[in-house]
Amino acid sequence: MPRLPVLSGAEVVRALERLGFEQKRQRGSHVVVRKDSIGCVEPLHKEVKTGTLAGLSR
Q1: What is the pLDDT of residue 54?
Q2: Which alpha helices (DSSP H) does the chain contain, by range?
Q3: What phi and psi, each to the nearest 5 degrees, are found at residue 47?
Q4: Do 33 and 39 contact (CB within 8 A), yes or no?
Q5: What is the pLDDT of residue 55?
Q6: CB neighbours of 42 closer than 8 A, spacing ≥ 6?
Q7: What's the CA angle centered on 49, arms 47 and 51, to 5 degrees?
Q8: What is the mean pLDDT of residues 10-34?
Q9: What angle do CA 4, 35, 53 make, to 5 degrees?
Q10: CA distance 50 to 5
Q11: Which of 3, 11, 28, 36 could be disulfide-bonded to 7 (CB atoms 3.0-4.6 Å)?
Q12: What is the pTM of this model?
């Protein structure tokens, strides 16, 4: 499996929106995105850890 890049939270949210996810709400530094019945919480940090990014991709 290739290594995951280091991305910011805003870059991850933009990538998810290009995949069809829609930003539903934000509270503090966390954004909830949803597509149909699939949803996830994305932290808006400067750097998203690779483990978090791997969990989002699953």
Answers
A1: 87
A2: 9-18, 50-57
A3: -130, 125
A4: yes
A5: 86
A6: 9, 12, 13, 16, 30, 31, 32, 33, 48, 56
A7: 160
A8: 93
A9: 15
A10: 8
A11: 11
A12: 0.82
Q: Is the pLDDT of residue 5 over 80?
A: yes
Residue in 13, 18, 57 with CA at minimum distance from that of residue 32? 13
Distance of alpha carbon 1 from alpha carbon 57, whole angstroms: 13
Alpha-carbon distance 14 to 6, whole Å? 14
Per-residue pLDDT at 50: 87
Of the candidates 6, 2, 10, 55, the one whose C-alpha atom is nearest the C-alpha of residue 30 is 10
Residues contacting residue 33 through CB under 8 Å, at least 6 positions apart: 13, 16, 17, 21, 22, 23, 24, 39, 40, 42
Q: Is the pLDDT of residue 30 over 80?
A: yes
